[in-house]
Specification:
This protein is of the alpha+beta class. The protein has one domain (about 5-10, about 20-80): hypothetical protein PF0899 fold. The protein has helices at about 5-20, 40-50, and strands at about 25-35, 60-65, 70-80. Helix 2 links the parallel strand 1 (about 25-35) and strand 2. Helix 1 (about 5-20) packs across helix 2. The protein is globular and about 35 Å long. The model has no long low-confidence stretch (mean pLDDT about 95).
């Protein structure tokens, strides 16, 4: 779970923003991840789901698009 330090701030930021909008849950998160970060999609998703337990992102589907770069961007997220 070496991605934990990257995922925890994402969960916190998305949760805070979604809650300000009155969301009860987040159903889908779309991310853009730089290939130079060395992140494997399946491992990232698994770690995300472990860390999101007990949050409004607990059941969120994670959609990842890779690009040439070295950052993570939140493209969008769907709320219920």
């Amino acid at each position: 779970m070496h991605e934990s330090h990257l995922i925890e701030p994402l969960i916190k930021g998305i949760s805070e923003h979604a809650q300000k909008e009155g969301a009860k849950s987040v159903s889908k998160v779309r991310l853009k991840i730089g290939q130079f970060m060395g992140i494997q999609g399946d491992s990232f998703k698994e770690t995300f789901h472990v860390l999101a337990k007990g949050t409004i992102l607990e059941k969120a589907e994670i959609e990842i698009t890779f690009f040439l770069g070295s950052r993570i961007e939140v493209l969008s997220f769907d709320v219920d």
